[in-house]
């Protein structure tokens, strides 16, 4: 699965309005493209990334002389930490020179993402009660229209409450006061403390806001549903957002994406004390429970056995 591939990557290696996964904010390119000549005089293109954040590479050619491309252009593909051949340029006529120029653009996320129909845990400790509801888009305060399908949740919790993971995943970015993981700019620009967790289906959960120096996880950590992430700040409100890449926003030219929604938003359904796969209703009170079958639902059989022994 995609999550396990990015886990291997880890082992080997003041103004914001929810600018999620703003890849263009990063100064250096978080991927590498290499080329090799083959025995027929063609050129093979390879690419890989060293970042744990999944990336989509889009490539197009502005010059192609005496060369055919093995894929339709512009071409987009998912990148991982494994070196992968992305396309081949084949020579047309042996007695003529070749020449090419290309351009690329990268986007965070994955192509063809289909969110799992999974039951989430409430993002606070078992036995704690909190009032829940949906959050408005921050940009509306300055007359910016909310993205299509926008869905964000809040939970008003008691002071000093720990934020808990809603499902299993890998931490891909952290902002904790002055501490900022390498991928924080690649993923999310904000002046609030946050943690972003990538799930096995290439959806992402963003948790805010945390007290300074009270985030317990770091980039690369694999966390299970129900694990503590950090302590909530003095707002006493946990805010969570689950989202994934909209394929239509993957373009070669940044101007082409104006007016196109970059993200789709997931409406998580939760296990509560009164129902399964429950939608959060504004103003309702929810008591958190952490059943074993929810915590272990995304574990392998071996991991479930290990987890059971450790309890």
Which SSEs are present, and which pair or pack?
Layout: H1 2-12, E1 19-20, E2 31-37, E3 43-49, E4 55-65, E5 67-69, E6 75-79, E7 84-91, E8 99-108, E9 119-120, E10 129-134, E11 152-156, E12 162-164, E13 169-176, E14 179-180, H2 184-187, E15 188-189, E16 194-198, E17 204-208, E18 210-215, E19 222-223, E20 228-232, E21 237-245, E22 263-265, E23 269-270, E24 285-287, H3 292-295, H4 301-310
Parallel strand pairs: 9-23
Antiparallel strand pairs: 1-15, 2-3, 3-7, 4-6, 4-8, 5-7, 10-11, 10-24, 11-21, 12-20, 13-14, 13-16, 13-19, 16-17, 17-21, 18-20, 21-22
Please tell me about this protein's structure.
- It contains four helices and 24 strands.
- The chain has 311 residues and is mainly beta.
- The longest helix is centred in the N-terminal third of the chain and has 11 residues, at 2-12.
- 33% of the residues are buried.
